[in-house]
Amino acid sequence: EVQVLESGGGLVQPGGSLRLSCGGSGFPFSSYAMNWVRQAPGKGLEWVSAITGSGSATDYAESVRGRFTISRDNSKNTLYLQMSSLRADDTGIYYCARSSSGPIAAGSQFQYWGQGTLVTVSS
Amino acid sequence: DIQMTQSPNFLSASVGDTVTITCRASQSISRFLNWYQQKPGRAPTLLIHVAYILQSGVPSRFAGSGSGTDFTLTISGLQPDDSAIYYCQQSASTPWTFGQGTKVEIK
Description:
The complex is a heterodimer.
Chain A: E1 3-7, E2 10-12, E3 18-25, E4 34-39, E5 45-51, E6 58-60, E7 68-73, E8 78-83, E9 92-99, E10 110-113, E11 117-121
Parallel strand pairs in A: 2-11
Antiparallel strand pairs in A: 1-3, 3-8, 4-5, 4-9, 5-6, 7-8, 9-10, 9-11
Chain B: E1 4-7, E2 10-13, E3 19-25, E4 33-38, E5 45-49, E6 53-54, E7 62-67, E8 70-75, E9 84-90, E10 97-98, E11 102-106
Parallel strand pairs in B: 2-11
Antiparallel strand pairs in B: 1-3, 3-8, 4-5, 4-9, 5-6, 7-8, 9-10, 9-11
C-alpha cells in the first residue's frame, strides 16, 4: 500500500525557519517525483514545490522561491522542505504528494497524498 | 502562470441528481487537467486525470470531459458521500495551479 507521511510542522515566529519531512513507503521512492502542496486555513490548494525522482531537478512557486528548498534522500525514502524567512501567509497545512511519474512533467498528477502537517507562523 | 477558474463556487443538490462543475483555463492546456475531491479535515484525493481518465477505485458516477480551455466534472446520481469540495488542477506547465474549488452540498 502506498503511503506518505508528513512530519515537522509547528509554531514558528515570523522570519524563522522550519524543516518538514515526508516519508514514503509501498513504492519505489526514487522512481517518482514528489511535491509539496499547501492549504491556508479555509482556503484552496496551492502547489509549493516539486522535485524529480532522482533529485536532479526542482521547481518552485514564485511565492516561495528563494525562501524554501526542496530536497530528498532516496536512501531514506524521505522528502524534505526547508522553509526560511517564514511569513504569516505561509501558515497552513502542508501536504506531501507523490506524482504519477519520475520527472516533473506535463500530464502528471498528485496521485497520493499524506494527511498533512500544520505550519503556523505567528508571534 | 495558467489561471484556473471553476464555476459555480457552491452548489446544493439532492441525492440522485446529476451535477456539473466547470473549470476554465486561461490558456489551452490540451487535456492536462486533473480533478480532486477533498472532504472536511481530510487530504485531497485524485478523482480524474488527463481530463477524463478515472482513477482506480473511483465510482463510475464521476466523469470528466473537455480539452483546450474548457472542462467539466459530472457526478451522475449524486450520493451523500459526494459532499465535498472539488478542485481542478492543470498539469500542462509549472507552476501547477488549482481552481478555487467548488463546494458540493447534499440537500
